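User: I'm preparing a small set of examples for a lab meeting where we compare how different chains pack in three dimensions. I only have the primary sequence for this one, and I'd like the structure in token form so I can line it up with the others. Please keep the answer compact; I'll paste it straight into my notes.
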Amino acid sequence: MKQNSSVSRYRFAIWLSFLFIVTNTLSRIVLTVMASEKNSLSFIDLGYSFISGIIYDLATLSYVLIPVLLWLTLIPLSWRKNNIWKVSGWIFSIMAAYSLVILAVSEWVFWDEFESRFNFIAVDYLVYTNEVIGNIRQSYPLLIWLSLCALTSLVLVVLINRLPFLIRWGHIPRTQMLSGLIIAQLLVNLGLSGQAKDLRENRYANELAGSGLYSLFYAFNNNELNYRHFYQTEDDSSANAIVREQLSTPDAHFTSTSGTDIWRDIKHSGAERRLNVVLISVESLSADYLGKFGNSKSLTPNLDQLADTGMLFTRLYATGNRTVRGLEALSLAVPPTPGQSIVRRPDNESLFSLASVFNSKGYSSSFLYGGYGTFDNMNYFFASNGYNVKDRLELKSDQITHENVWGVADEDLYGMALRDFDQSSQKGKPFFAHIMTTSNHRPYTFPENRIDMPTGSRAAAVKYTDWAIGNFIKQASKHSWYNDTVFVIVADHCSSSAGKTDLPVERYHIPLIVWSPAHLPAQKVDRLMSQADIAPTLLGLLNFSYKSNFMGADVFATPKGPERAFIATYQGLGYLTPDRLVILRPRKEPEVQMLENAFAKTAKSNAELVKEAIAWYQFSSDAYSEGRMKLVH
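Assistant: Understood. Below is the structure token output for the 633-residue chain.
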């Protein structure tokens, strides 16, 4: 017994705990430096983020230690003098260190892209490993990074193993060690959650106050949120009345008196414009990339020219910060709902969509994507809601000039579109097409000799994206259907939605250009609007009469337009008006912010405005969960 007692039972657990705290603290320091490059952090913010961060690191560690302590408790001490055990211990130590170093570096890469700890986006990316790993390989010197991580791991193992307290602390009795773990788990489960750390006004401080691994698993468990379970609600009749009132326009007649039914007959006098429609949703095109919105780097000469000769909507806001959110709003004309986008949810078939309206008018409707449409469930969603789907698989090798892990170059996608439009035109049918681009996405690569900038940067990708759109319009002008076509150019979301606050309004501002010189006059439209308003506004410009179940509004249908927009993360739901922003958060009181010169500050609560915000998000969430967005009614 004395011989065995000299063996430190929990030495590895103490070693792993020290390594875990060291790597997470070093990671937090690096993330703090990265955050400070874009936002100043006060000493209070810094102090809070590190103190809270240690608490979350310890909480995460308590989960990591569960299998480790159980294993070390059950294995007899006599086994540990075996050379096989010792060699295995070294191998396992190096693997553990390597995993923690890789985790830290992954957080830095994720922060560089999203300015956030791991969240639901990271959870989604775990599903699409091919695209994500390919993106990393094409964006970073992966072999060098992995080699440096391996060297760092080896150094950490050697250095930490020299610490004398490992053996001493490793002799803690089993009852004390296991009791401590049980107490820690009770405290963690009773006192912590993903939002418990969000006590500072500075969003960056709150992000730094968390732990990457904890945030990842929290996002995994909370990827879909039931609105009524997590958010403040209003009386159903009151909420329904608010939504129906705001959807009441001179051109609309409700077909039912039921408060939950928003089906309307939209009637326009005069002939319908049966024009072809090409809707291009551009990857990550923030408004501030355009010269029309003040950019001085000449990145978008073609878009700026289209804005001069077409309809430029200057106050449009994206509903979310991911492509699927933009696709949801553009196709279904609905506000965002908490959790996952409808594009990725179950039971999302046969919904009332923009394609269903065009199909009822005899159009051929399609969704064209430059990548593999299995990503984010895009192919299934669009194919199940009235669109003919074509993606990267439709292209032959000689039709691709350049490709990366996210998709083919935009010019190749537009080439596929031109061929598809010719086929529809030859059948004598008008067509509606929704094109989703990919080139303005990391790793930002595209064909050479297109623009005067090398590949690899966001600015260059924006300029290539602009070139490809200009070239597409030029090529389209050679086709018979061109003069009878409306081109709609909009972003899916901004290049980044991160900012000092949860919902920085300026990071949701995107451009919208509707261009058809032969049919639509050039004008600037300054009305506040949401991506959810584009579909009904477009149908209004075509003078279509149709049955509508859209929650978006035609901004020209009333003299003032909707004067509200919806912006959201997967948990924070924003209701934007010209001077205020209402934010709804899970199990928190609604917050009202005043917007002055693009800066937000907390304002006195506005009961009526809060009620409006709740009404919209409550109504839209219920409408989906209860099947009221379905085409059949």
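A couple of notes for your slides: Residues 43-74 form the longest helix (32 residues). The mean pLDDT is 90.

User: Perfect, thanks.
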